[in-house]
Structures are given as C-alpha cells and as structure tokens.
C-alpha cells in the first residue's frame, strides 16, 4: 500500500479519529480484516460478521503492529471511526487506485474464476509487477483489500470479481474501474439469487463489460452464447477466446496426458506456441485461453504467454488439489465450492487421472440451484455412474439423496452409500477407501467437505 497518514485516510473515508496521538503517523502496509493477518504498519478493518465481530480483536491487532483500526465505534485503541467500515474500505481503495493508475483487469464467470486469475497473474508477473486477488477474495471486502496491496511499482492489478446478485459487479467496478474485462462463462452458480435462469446470470455477469470504456477490452468466451452476447453491452473492443474458429485466441491439437494434464497449441494474433499445463482436467484449456487472451490484449507475445502458462502452478487450495498418500491413495480435493458445471468438470478430470484405478466420489450438496436443484443433483448421480466410478458417498440429507437414487437406478454397478454429515463421511470413506484408490471430494463451501478431504489426505496410520 502507498504510505498515507491517518489524517489523510480520515479525510478520504470521512472518519473521526479516536485515541490517535499523532494524526501524521503513517500507514505503510496493507489493510486486513483478520487480526491474525495484520502486519506492522498496516490498518485493521473491524468488520462485523455473522459469528465474529472484528471490534473485539482491535486491541490485539494494534498489539500485533496495526497503526490503527478502521471501526464503526471507538475501540479503546487508535481508531478511524466511520459509519460503515465496508464502504470506507471501498472509498479508500478507489482513492489509492486514482493515485496509482495501474492497468486493472476485472474477471468474472460462474466457474473457473480463481484458477484463471491465478494463471493470468503468473503470466503477467513475469512481465511486470502484478498484484492479484488472494484466494477467492472477490467481494465487496476482498476487492478493496486487494487494491490496497498495490503500490507505486504495481503495473497490473488482476481482480477476481464475484457476483451473488444483480448489481454486485456494478458496485465492484465502481470501486475499481477496469480497463480489461474478462467473462469466462454463464452457469448456474448463484442462480437462485439472480432470478432463476441463465439469462438472469448473464445479465448480472454482463455488468462487468458494461462498465468498460471505449478504450478498453472486453475479453469474451466465444463458445458460450450468453457470454458472446455480451458484446452488445459494451463500448470496448471485443476479443474472443475459445474453440471457435472465430476466436482470436484459441487452442489447437488439444490432448491430455496420463496424469490428466492438458496440452495444446496456443494460437494468438502474434503466432503459435505449445502449452503444457500442470493442472488436471481438459476444462483447464478454457481457463488458460482466457488468461492468454487477456495477456495478448495487454501486449504480450505468444511465446511469452506460453512460457508463463507452462511455468504456472496451482496456487489456491480446494480446487482439484491432488494429494498422494504413501499407500498409493490419491485424494483430489475440489471442495472449495460446487455447481453442476464444476461437478461435471471435476468428475471427468478425476476419471482421466485415475485411468484403470478404483475411484471413489464423496459428494455433497450444490447450493443455490433454485427449483432445479433436485434434478441437477440427479444429473450428477447419473454422471458418476456413467463415468464408471466404483463408489459414491453422498453427504447430507435432501438433494444429495437424489444423486444416490439416480446412481442406483442407472444399474451401472456403482456402490452407493449415504453419510449424514461431514464427520460421517470421514468415517465412511476411511472404511471404504482401499490402497491405490483415487478419491474425489466436492460440495458447495457451506457443506464443509474440505475437512473431509484434508482428513482423507492425511498420512495413513
């Protein structure tokens, strides 16, 4: 973060200073909303969540090095008190951006955002100083925190932008107006809160490209009709990526090796180059093309882009994270979140990885699927059976049971089990998994199946 005095910050966010001896003291490090992540010279933002009130941790944050606390009430330590901490963080982020003026890339989509963001960041940071969203901090708190990590050396700011409702991306692009907007796809994630159908999701996702100026770039998935249709909502220049022959950035000669890692020939306006990804699943080709298309509009050549993709590694946990146990069991943790699209991609990737090995799927609910939820869970069950998984463990009551019924009715020979909760899934999977198995764990984040994946990935006793 650029250095700013407490008095400067107070003026920007409209704060009153409490317990501050010297308003000229400098904040020299980024902000944090977790007191455990405060670094000396930083700012602690005391937000109020469903279970935790950050104000209770204000003293500890200052003891840990925070210069002051951005709070909604006095907290007994140096504080900038505002009416709304979240809005204040947003104002501060916008102010910092106006002073720095990096190239801002905003990206959104129903699935693949975090992986694409990680790939793009690794391509760009080989070229110039780059700050990118950490993990999936892509909301009204995570985006300002990312912006506040930028400094005078930052050339590229890569911002993952999540949308749970219509209007979310309008708000986020107001805080950090992008010069490049990337839309990956339109799926069923958050469909319940957006109106119930893919057109509603497309309307929400399209807010990103609608925010672009005429001198910007809208990078759109040529293979998704809802995304391609967003070309009519932007003043920016449109660049297409995908498998279509009309895409300016596309893949040819796609193949998958014995460890389910895809390779292809990257084709861009500047030429062709081979790419070998160190990620599993053929669907990663689309994520890589999206990253390549953004890098191309930013002026990188095809060889430089391919080198960055070839060197890229998985950075964010819980997304097709592969762990090999000493007894030959492979655990694939994809439990960060789930939608029908990501379920399909993950199941196919795991089967490609497994080859002839025995496969176990530990699956929980996919949230926010509206009235189609039960039918979409049943589709997953049929796919598990159709792909030839040996064991299905459905976790939780309700819609996950539709996976069980669909898998059983397929008569494909998959052994079906039900676990009441995460703890039950750990016990059941622990009893059923055999040496050499490949185990796939996935559900929406609120299910908490990441704990199951971590338990299964632990060295066998």
From TrEMBL:
EC number: 6.3.2.10
Record-linked InterPro entries: Mur-like_cat_sf (IPR036565), Mur_ligase_C (IPR004101), Mur_ligase_C_dom_sf (IPR036615), Mur_ligase_cen (IPR013221), Mur_ligase_N (IPR000713), MurCDEF_CellWall_CoF430Synth (IPR051046), MurE/MurF_N (IPR035911), UDP-N-AcMur_synth (IPR005863)
Catalytic activity: D-alanyl-D-alanine + UDP-N-acetyl-alpha-D-muramoyl-L-alanyl-gamma-D-glutamyl-meso-2,6-diaminopimelate + ATP = UDP-N-acetyl-alpha-D-muramoyl-L-alanyl-gamma-D-glutamyl-meso-2,6-diaminopimeloyl-D-alanyl-D-alanine + ADP + phosphate + H(+)
Any one GO cellular component localisation term in the record: cytoplasm
Domain Mur ligase C-terminal: 318-444
GO biological process terms held by the UniProt record: cell division; cell wall organization; peptidoglycan biosynthetic process; regulation of cell shape
Subcellular location: Cytoplasm
EC supergroup of this enzyme: ligase
Coiled coil (UniProt feature): none
Residue ranges occupied by any Mur ligase N-terminal catalytic domain in the UniProt entry: 33-77
Associated pathway: Cell wall biogenesis; peptidoglycan biosynthesis
Keywords: ATP-binding, Cell cycle, Cell division, Cell shape, Cell wall biogenesis/degradation, Cytoplasm, Ligase, Nucleotide-binding, Peptidoglycan synthesis
Gene Ontology MF terms: ATP binding; UDP-N-acetylmuramoyl-tripeptide-D-alanyl-D-alanine ligase activity
Residues annotated to bind ATP: 109-115
Mur ligase central domain ranges (all copies): 108-295
Main location: cytoplasm
Family: Belongs to the MurCDEF family. MurF subfamily.
Function: Involved in cell wall formation. Catalyzes the final step in the synthesis of UDP-N-acetylmuramoyl-pentapeptide, the precursor of murein.
Listed name of the protein: UDP-N-acetylmuramoyl-tripeptide--D-alanyl-D-alanine ligase
Gene giving rise to this polypeptide: murF
